[in-house]
Amino acid sequence: METVDWSSFVKLHYRIFQQFYLFFMKKLGFYKTNSYAELTLLGSFFNE
């Protein structure tokens, strides 16, 4: 079994995850600016 490099995996899939997250938040009516701000902070963290 090969070990997964989670940091590179997350960096690779973060943008896809972000789009799905925003889509479902809008669908469920939970989409708020603070949720997007949290995602943006996460994004800057992973992009470093």
Question: Briefly, what is this?
Answer:
The chain has 48 residues and is mainly α. The chain has helices at 6-28, 33-47.
Describe what this molecule looks like in 3D.
This protein has 48 residues and is mostly helical. It has one domain (6-46). It is built from two helices and no strands. The model has no long low-confidence stretch (mean pLDDT 71).
Keywords:
48 residues, 2 helices, 0% strand
Strand content: under 5%
Low-confidence stretches: none
How many helices in DSSP terms?
Answer: 2
- Write down the overall mean pLDDT: 71
Number of strands: 0
Strand/helix succession = HH
The domain count comes to: 1
Our measurement of the CA-to-CA distance between the termini, rounded to an integer number of angstroms, reads 29 Å
